[in-house]
Amino acid sequence: MTALAAGRSARTRRRILVTAILAALVIALFLLTLVLGNRVYGLPEVLGVIAGQDVSGASFTVGRLRLPRAIIATLIGVALGLAGTLFQTMLRNPLASPDILGVGYGSSAAAIVAIGFFGAQGATVAVVAVVAGMAVALLLYALSWRQGVQGARLVLIGIAIGAVLVAVIQWVLTRIEVYKAAEALRWLSGSLGSALWGDVPPLAISLLVLVPAAAVLARRLGVLQLGDDTAAALGVRPHRTRLLLLVVAVGLVAVATAAAGPVAFVAFLSGPIAGRLLPGTALLLPAALVGAVLVLAADLVGGNLLFTTFPVGVVTGAVGAPYLLWLIARSNRTGGRL
């Protein structure tokens, strides 16, 4: 009993330490994105702007341009980190990520149609992206249902739906005017370049609803992993719980995509990275922090540390694609076990 208590205490200390380090890293990257740019400002100037002081030059550049961009990057990272972890844990499959299942492509395809054919902008694009993401998720759930939903079947159907939606996106881009295609491509790249204060409230309010819902439903994830029969015996309705988790996770992906376009592979990477740092523990909070770190770091690198400016989605895609290839290669070596 003493050894068991000691082990539990050690895991708790490790969890607190890792979570604190991740939170500190988020804060450090957040401040760096405010400090660095075409003009570098000192940390006291940046902190003064955050505190509401009028700092010559910095009040506009930091307060009006960089600060909303950093806030949106953080919120998007949190949303995608939570969503990816919910998908992967719920379906017990590391490939069960919104990037792989086509959910993000649903939001993207609808947004591109709205931009290209109807001239939609701003909030209209966001609403269309959210609704389309939900619709694709429900279609995915319905097509994969066969006396329950299995992770492998859901992944395969999601890949097929994603391929169709990519074809739709490509077709739309060939049919619209050049200036609309340029705007659509900028959106598809997952860019934070046009982030403004007006984009913050819808995203923040959505997360105020979805994040607590994810935290409440996540308590049932551990029971679901024991199998549907065991979950039902313990009083958890597996199919209903899985559907609710799917709706919340898709909502997180959709609002993040609506805010900045599809930021590739953040949802895919956050859970596995958090799992490496804290094996055998609840991963929602660490994964959310890892997601924020990934988006902030990608925005910092893409905007300041390379020879030219890259959208954040391009940087995260360059990191995530090799991991996906490694995961597939590992699956082949282990006979299909991921």
What does it look like?
This protein has 338 residues and is an all-alpha fold. It has a single domain, classed as ABC transporter involved in vitamin B12 uptake, BtuC. It is built from 15 helices and no strands. The chain has helices at 2-35, 43-50, 58-91, 98-101, 103-118, 123-144, 151-175, 178-188, 200-218, 221-224, 228-233, 238-260, 266-277, 284-305, 312-333. Helix 5 (103-118) crosses helix 6 (123-144). The longest helix is centred in the N-terminal third of the chain and has 34 residues, at 2-35. The radius of gyration is 20 Å and the shape is globular. The model has no long low-confidence stretch (mean pLDDT 82).
Key attributes of the depicted protein:
338 residues; mainly alpha; ABC transporter involved in vitamin B12 uptake, BtuC; 78% helix; globular
Question: What's the layout of helices and strands?
Answer:
Elements (H helix, E strand, L loop, with lengths): L1 H34 L7 H8 L7 H34 L6 H4 L1 H16 L4 H22 L6 H25 L2 H11 L11 H19 L2 H4 L3 H6 L4 H23 L5 H12 L6 H22 L6 H22 L5
Helix pairs in contact: 1-3, 1-14, 2-3, 3-9, 3-12, 3-13, 3-14, 5-6, 5-7, 5-8, 5-12, 6-7, 6-12, 9-12, 13-14, 14-15
